[in-house]
Amino acid sequence: MSETSSSTKAPSLFVTTRWSVVLKAQDKSSPDSAAAWETLCQTYWYPLYAYVRHQGHNPHDAQDLTQEFIARFLAKDYLKAADRDKGHFRTFLRVALKRFLLNEWDRVRAQKRGGGLKLISLDTELAESKYQTEAQGQPPEQVYEREWAMALLQKTMADLRTEYEQAGKTAEYECLKACLTAERGSIAYARIAADLAMSEGAARVAVHRLRKRFRELFRTAVADTVSEPAEVDDEVRHVVSLLSVG
What is the pTM of this model? Predict the structure, then answer.
């Protein structure tokens, strides 16, 4: 189930949890339900693992606890209790994990000794490597929230790249993507124009379109994680603040 291909690449496991995915997973009669469940498991493996590690558990115990929590969540169909009108899904899941850790550690440890734990196949080595590169000493909730924000950003970038690939503009995307984080005054339009064999004016237009489309996709991704349209602006500001924390 691992989606990563390089030990140097951060795992893209914490993809934005769109409520549309949650709703599909809840509907067992839907042909998309199984794939949605798979997406949720893959999505939340790393942030849940990081949360458990920040609670003081060692890597092996954190892996066992995270695996068992996901397996229990699926087996008991706890997802049916998730309600879009009651807040963010990521918060719902974090609260469920916190309760699980309070009640289940001894049982999971005993199960591990008895060999009964069925592990979900995920890249635990890469997860621990990523965990070790993060700033230490942060509250578990803060780590969890930041991982969500980072994945939201990564998912938006992936969607943007896909659009360019489908339009046959992969080379243009690769050339322009650094402009998404660059200050306007630092963008080398002349170099971009030369690399893409276009005029400098056309290069400026291309950069403008890329940045504009990124903002649109980012806002759409955020909008699909909240309950009401009125919440979008506040949530965008929240995500940006999380990404701004060094």
Answer: 0.60
Spatial distance between the Cα atoms of 47 and 91, rounded to a whole number of angstroms: 12
Amino acid at 49: Y
pLDDT for residue 94: 87
Whole-number Å distance between alpha carbons of 172 and 55: 44
- Residue 200's closest CA among 189, 186, 211? 189
Q: What is the DSSP string of 148-217?
A: HHHHHHHHHHHHHHHHHHHTT-HHHHHHHGGGGTS-GGG--HHHHHHHHTS-HHHHHHHHHHHHHHHHHH
Handedness of CA 106, 109, 113, 118 (dihedral sign): positive
DSSP secondary structure code for residue 135 in this structure: P
154 Cβ contact partners less than 8 Å away, ≥ 6 residues apart: 10, 12, 15
Note the pLDDT tens digit of each residue in 62-99. 888 888 888 787 777 777 777 766 667 788 888 889 88
* Cα 93 from Cα 105, distance rounded (Å): 17
In the block, residue with structure tokens 């124009």: 193
Give the count of beta carbons closer than 10 Å to the beta carbon of residue 1: 11
Least Cα distance to 226 among 11, 22, 35, 26 occurs for 22
Query: How far apart are the C-alpha atoms of 61 and 148, rounded to whole Å?
Result: 23
Q: Computed from CA positions of residues 34, 37, 42, 45, in that sequence, does the dihedral angle turn out positive or negative?
A: negative
For the chain, what's the residue count? 246
What letters, b where the CB count within 10 A reaches 16 and e where it falls short, cover 129-159?
Answer: ebbeeeeeeeebeebbbbbbbbbbbbbbbeb
